[in-house]
Amino acid sequence: xxxxxxxxxxxxxxxxxxxxxxxxxxxxxxxxxxxxxxxxxxxxxxxxxxxxxxxxxxxxxxxxxxxxxxxxxxxxxxxxxxxxxxxxxxxxxxxxxxxxxxxxxxxxxxxxxxx
Amino acid sequence: xxxxxxxxxxxxxxxxxxxxxxxxxxxxxxxxxxxxxxxxxxxxxxxxxxxxxxxxxxxxxxxxxxxxxxxxxxxxxxxxxxxxxxxxxxxxxxxxxxxxxxxxxxxxxxxxxxxx
Lengths: 115, 116
Known about the structure:
The complex is a heterodimer. Chain A is mainly β. Chain A has no helices and eleven strands. In chain A, strands 2, 4, 5, 9, 10 and 11 form a six-stranded mixed sheet that branches. Chain A has a five-stranded antiparallel sheet with strand order 1-3-8-7-6, with no helix packed on it. Chain A is globular. In chain B, about 0% of the residues lie in helices and about 55% in strands. Chain B has strands spanning about 5, 10-15, 20-25, 30-40, 45-50, 55-60, 65-75, 75-80, 90-95, 105, 110-115. In chain B, a hairpin with a 7-residue loop joins strand 9 and strand 10 (about 105). The chains are: A mainly beta, B mainly beta.
């Protein structure tokens, strides 16, 4: 049962335009969401996160939106740069306690930004 | 962010041998570390939660006798793949959180294990 889903395996965007990566989840116990960027043969790098009590979090070129009622979140990158080309993973965490840091990942979306 | 170092980055071993992978938190203490594996073109799947000073908690379907986890100090967790077989070939990644109540997990560089 895939509790975190990224339905788009890949996304291609022109440099300077906006990249929008989507993520859906099914587990209503998830209360914290994170986006990671990953290159082949490397560990994921943390990008941005959002708590379920918020609907938006912004950090530089990266903005994450959360729609709890739809169980949907998205990552916006604007403007997109060729260096953003990587695999992006959406991840979710349930209530705290022993679950802190325990993440459920989506399948990933390959983002390619063309010059 | 916090730095997590994983070693080795790549290992090739013969079938039947055991392989140890180390995960260290370099600039913080981690009471809890996590071990994931990733098959090609798939997501990261949590294998186990490593708890300092106590037994690891394994996810359903993960063999605790094959994937031995030791978290002997606040900065080091090890994963030993016992009697490795070709089907154990995968990308293994560890992560740790900085401080109690921290959701953001920081990941090591990963270890590519190939069993021949």
